[in-house]
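Lecture 7 notes. Example A: sequence first, then its structure tokens.
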Amino acid sequence: MNKIRQYFSTFDIIRGFLIAFLGSAFIYLNYWGHSHPFITTIFGVTSLHLLLQEKERTWFIYGFFTGLFWFWWIGLSFEHYKMIWAILPVIFFIAFAYGFIFWFIAFLAEKSESKYSTPFPTALVIKALAILLLSYLHPFGFDWLKLELMFVESYLGIEKWQFSIILFASVLAHWKKELLWLFLVLFAYQPANTNVSNIPYNVQIITTHTSVKDKWNTSLHSAQFDALFKTIDQAIEQNKTLIILPESVFPLFLNHSQPLIDKLQEKAQKIAIVTGGLYWDGKVPHNSTYIFNKNKISVAHKVILVPFGERNPLPNFLSDWVNQVFYDGAIDYQASSKITDYIIDRKTYRNAICFEATSEKLYEKDKHGNYPKNMIVLSNNGWFTPSTEPTLQKLLLQYYSKKYGTTIYHAVNMSESYVIKSEAY
């Protein structure tokens, strides 16, 4: 403790904590249903402005608590692997990892300023550029840290050029020692819009409440499947034309379960069905979406797999050992090399399964040069509930909906389902 005190004063810790709190408050305000564009705007701008003026120690504390506030829920998944002992170590590993990332940014910035004498505030500029580009840093393929996300429900925009204006205004305010320069953030103004919309009358988006433990309990499958088919029948009675079920609600290799395929295809004569299920190609498993539309059955495989959850991003010699020790020798899922679009009722939908819907790659242009206008996302949040993970996921989907003009239909297990409608819709 004495050595820690040599490096971090109580003042450093308090300042880092408060700045991280301001920059993370938008998640918890949304989680508790108290998000307001004015509050999130003030908190976001204040957090960035305070952070830019701080030194390496405070940047480390800021990174530590930002990692903690944003991603503490990752450790919860280890409960389902019967490794409760790993929850806290994983949480603190994540917090320290982000702490060192932010410390390194500040360290480089301060060293550069001391080494090179320029008429410009070198450290401030480097810090601002690092924050701007931080969203391109994807440790192990995990890309959920986007600091511009704090403005997704604010009066300011989330595009890179708008985020640049916010950071530039703060740099000028520090350089000129005049807070009036912060009013330049008004050039990043964008009308506040939460984007969360009502579900269309002809679409039924299902929320299921099946725990991870029950989901993989084969003795419960019969009752679970009966409930799903009852839900489909109710949607038919209500004259719905499309029903969307969450990720892997059929937790088996559906392509090898002909009775279920036949029953789903029978229902599909009256309603289009989009559902999650597993797929076995004879060599490796896939996490997939099955689309039943009249007499046609389509299968769309997941493109971007969850790091450590569905694929092990470590080198092979480590990956095999980790899978053997921690995952009972289970093999990784196989990702598809191709993004899938499909058509229902003359409307084209981009396929996405959980984590991949929050990745930039899924929003690439189609063969006609257009960003996806509609996307159907299937998720299973049972690994991380109760927590703020579903809230952060929804905010990320709002971010991409705003950025690419995509309307997102999201069916979820263990948290609410919803539609996010693009502003251009």
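Example B, a different protein, same format:
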Amino acid sequence: MDGSRRRLLRLSGGLGLLGLAGGVAGCGFRPVYGTGGSDGGADAAEDLAATQVGIIADREGQILHNLLLDRFNPRGRPTEPRHSLSTAVSIAISELGTQIDETTTRSQVTVSATSTLNAFGEAHSFRSRIVATFSTTESEYASSVAEQDAIKRAMVVIADDIRLQVATFFERQRLLQS
């Protein structure tokens, strides 16, 4: 291929990407975690930061509470919260793989969370559920550590999912108000 054809292909590829970017911008696409709405008002990230995250019972609840604080209030707890989020967590552990002598080799942990967001004068519910697996051994300590690690990994996914659901809710509310 000669040099002029290569330049033409590069130019047409670049124009195609530019056209694609322009098409996405023209259709009303807005990132959920953007800064400053196009209408000059607050955005979902500001609403998240103005949300007070309630205490969650038990050790696993404390882990989820801290993860939610990191995701909702990265600059510290709000001094004048406009919204509040309360969450309940349930954890179920079941055995999956067993050997002939009935010892377990694989287990799974199911973590479910139900959150209630009090915002705009109403209560809104969000649910999240994740299943994580872990290996078990004859060593109780190793099995316990593996179980706790699986729970912590599940909590990270739950926290991310709750944040995404709540941010999407805030963005929808903003679109409905405009």
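Note on Example B: Confidence is low (pLDDT under 50) at residues 35-41. DSSP finds four helices and four strands in the chain.
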